[in-house]
Amino acid sequence: MRDDFLEESLYDSFRPAWRKSSLVLFVGSPLVFNEWILRVAISESEDLEVRRHDDLASADPVRLASEAVLRLVVVEESHADELAQFMADARSPAGPVQWVLAYRDIVPAREVLEQRLHGGPLQEVRLLPMNVPIGVWASMFRLMLWGDFFVPCELLAPGLATGAAAVPAPALTDTVLTRRETEVLDLVAKGGQNKVIAHRLGLSEHTVKLHIHRIITKIGVRNRTAAARWYLSRVAEQGR
Prior knowledge:
Elements: H1 4-12, E1 22-27, H2 35-45, E2 49-53, H3 56-59, H4 61-67, E3 69-76, H5 80-88, E4 98-103, H6 106-118, E5 126-129, H7 134-145, H8 179-189, H9 194-201, H10 205-219, H11 224-237
Parallel strand pairs: 1-2, 1-3, 3-4, 4-5
């Protein structure tokens, strides 16, 4: 295994030094946060530096936050207890740090979701699935950088409940979707293709695709067809 210094040097070379004012930190095994994952993270992070450390102790987020703007800390699920202890001890660095648990096992992810609902040291932690296609992972990672929170749909499926109550799908009137996302979803439900929606709303097709991905993630469905059904059923329920 290469030591952290060599790994950081490799990924530092992707960016000019004068741009390294903000930092994304991965905490966990290089088998989980491998070179491919880190390269994708670099490509999504634009002007942010990307580092990986084996654990929180060696990463020392408080020290890092004093040296740079620590934007995002993504922690492997095997370090969930270490993260909980770190946050319970109120050692979290100051600043707009987003904490994320990267998971494959649904059990620790559900525990984080339970704490978000009912309180606990991990109640501010977001969730990032690692068992999804790399393109989907990249989109989810980008949303994390933007500060968005979403619940991956597998955590809401009643058939996968592990003691925690299933979270019901939100009503259309809940503050789940933005105005623009609602406009996009309305056109999706009417059968609009991305190019048509983009022209109608004065957006690029890429932006429409991103809105649709965010909608699918937020409401906990698997594709645009299911999102359209979700929307139409709630419109019908509310008598629109």
